[in-house]
Amino acid sequence: MAAIRSDAGASRRLLRAALQGREDLTVLISVPLLIEYEEVMTRAQHLKASGLSRADVAGLLDALAAVSEPVTLAYLWRPTLPDADDDMVLEAAANGRADAIVTFNVRDFGAVAEGFGIAILSPGEAVQLLETHNEKE
Q1: DSSP assignment, residue 81?
Q2: How much is the pTM?
Q3: Strand partners, 120
Q4: Using an 8 Å Cβ cutoff, are 95 and 30 in contact?
C-alpha cells in the first residue's frame, strides 16, 4: 500500500526495483496474496489517496505478477499472526523460502517469522541492503 500511496518512499523504490527485474531482488507471490493485494488496493480510500483507477491497479498487479516468482502453498500456518491477512504473507514467504519479509509491521511478524528463519526488514532497511549490494558490484 505504501508504494502506491507515496511516490517518494522506500516502498515505492522497492516496487520500482522489482518491476525493473533487478536480479538481486526476488518478489514472491501466491494467488491468495495477489487477490488480497487487489482487494485492499482497490478500496475507495486507497484509490483516492494513490490517484489510481481500478484499471491502473490491475495493470500494476499484472506487472508485479509478471516479475514475481509464484509460490505454491504446500503448507498453511494459520492462525499464526494477529492479523489473518498477514498469515498469507508469512505462508508465501515460508513456502517460497524467502530470506526476508519487507513490511512496516515489524512488531507482528518479528518472532514468528524468525522461527521460520525469515528476517523482517522495514522498507528502508531493504532499500539500504539493495544499495549496499549495488555498491559492491
Answers
A1: S
A2: 0.88
A3: 101
A4: yes
